[in-house]
Amino acid sequence: xxNNLRFPAEWEPQSAVLLAWPHEGTDWAPRLEGVERTYxxxxxxxxxxxxxxxxxxxxxLKARAGALLEAAGVDLGRVRFFEVPYDDTWxxxxxxxxxxxxxxxxxxxxxxxxWGGKFEAxxxxxxxxxLHASGLLAPARHQRIDFALEGGGIETDGAGTLLSTWTxxxxxxxxxxxxxxxxxxxxxxxxxxxxxxFHGYLEGDDTxxxxxxxxxxxxxxxxxxxxxxxxxxxHYAPLxxxxxxxxxxxxxxxxxxxxxxxPWARPILDEGRRLxxxxxxxxIINGAVLxxxxxxxxxxxxAAVLARAFPGREIVRIDCRPLIWQNGxxxxxxMQLPEGLLA
Length: 343
Known about the structure:
Blueprint: E1 5-6, E2 14-20, H1 32-49, E3 52-56, H2 59-71, E4 79-83, H3 91-94, E5 97-101, E6 104-111, H4 114-117, H5 127-133, E7 140-148, E8 154-156, E9 161-165, H6 166-172, H7 178-189, E10 193-197, E11 215-217, E12 222-226, H8 236-248, E13 258-262, E14 269-270, E15 273-274, E16 283-285, E17 288-293, H9 298-309, E18 314-319, H10 321-324, E19 335-338
Parallel strand pairs: 2-3, 3-4, 6-7, 9-10, 12-13, 17-18
Antiparallel strand pairs: 1-5, 2-19, 5-6, 8-9, 11-12, 14-15, 16-17
């Protein structure tokens, strides 16, 4: 592996979190006020610990977002805006995957296909290039990669181990073998090994089982994952199978990972459609973990699990019911930028 390139883990120091503000031209339009309240709470929580870099479609949206944040008491000195057109707001998947390169950075710009061509993504696929050209970031190399990959589909421990789901990557590249996909990922992301999960999914998730809805690293020796203890639930068998897979995983030294199973929220339905309420879709920032909350009794237990998995970090709950209406949650709408990257 190149000794001057490294894919940092999410828990490493950050300069900012990147988001895109919802507006009438996005799929959020029918329920815009509700989702804006979630965005205000999310940006407010981020700004307590570090800057937020917020994409806005135009000057009018910048003014609206700024007014909403200011009314909520958010320190706008901790918020920077970037005017850029976008199709949607899932920055985990359309934003940059950043490698450290010596004393600088490399912005990996994978082909964003809107989860296998499910939606329009022409503007979102240009986002990384426009961000690189904006002058908002420290000098970084921009590397376009003609390979479909979303940030929510991968997890790294920062030390050369990648975690992903075969369902997602196989759906994106049905003509490629597991060996070919693994080699492409490890070369582009500078990883020494890849751990694949073959079971686990969530109803209401249209990402084809992104890893960030199912299992996450909590340091190089631990994994937090979404469990299900309701035998009557359709998720019980696949998530039990996934739990067994995770229990069988081994660290590079051959030892098992410390495991932190997350509780299972009661089904959340919207006009009869079940929504993907995963507690694994949390965001790690400087000094805190922002946790999706769903107004369920399991919220408190999930917060307690994350507190044990991330000792020393404050656990901040964010109401994410408005987000899961569009099939994603807190981690899906954010992308962390490593320390030093924001100019």
